[in-house]
Amino acid sequence: xxxxxxxxFKGTKVKTDLARSRARKARRVEKVAENAGIAAAIGKEPLIxxxxxxxxxxxxxxxxxxxxxxxxxxAACKTFVLLRAKHRGGVCExxxxxxxxGPIEVWYHVTPQALGNALKxxxxxxxxxxxxxxxxxxxxxxxxxxxxxxxxxxILGNEAVDWLQANAGRKQISTREALDMAIEYExxxxxGEWRDGAVPM
Length: 201
Description:
This protein is mainly alpha-helical. It folds into 2 domains: 2-62, no CATH class; 65-196, no CATH class. It has 6 helices and 4 strands. It has helices at residues 2-42, 65-88, 131-143, 147-156, 158-167, 175-190; strands at residues 48-51, 59-62, 106-109, 126-129. A hairpin with a 7-residue loop joins strand 1 (48-51) and strand 2 (59-62).
């Protein structure tokens, strides 16, 4: 009796393990197909990058479609927001350190990038600033100074800042979403929509 029960248990376990193995294989096939589709949508094969470690020979490694999609999104988003900032006045939009006279050199995130990529590429969360004001925000935040927070509300308004803070921790951007956002930004840039301050979200 015990032998029969043991055999039944082993048979059930084998079937369970087999089902799990098939499910993992199916997920891998879906992931490969998704990556191939993203690479095709980007319009090129996965890039090859050279990598050399200390005391090691040079090796070649593929850059995954996820990296390709986010690289494309970052380039398009940064171009859009910097063009928009320069069209608005051409000087730093923060102005706390530079007094509003500094050139636009970098993109500035109202909600810090450290909180994740959920709002990193959202044009509603980005302004154009000089290096000094951008760096000053980090130190002010570490000291607990409210000066930058007050400036954000002056520029964007209380409702917009409250929305950004409430959505800072939402779901992160997937590879497919990153590609779709990049394409949308590129269309907005081509249409010149940065001139009216429009955001593509």
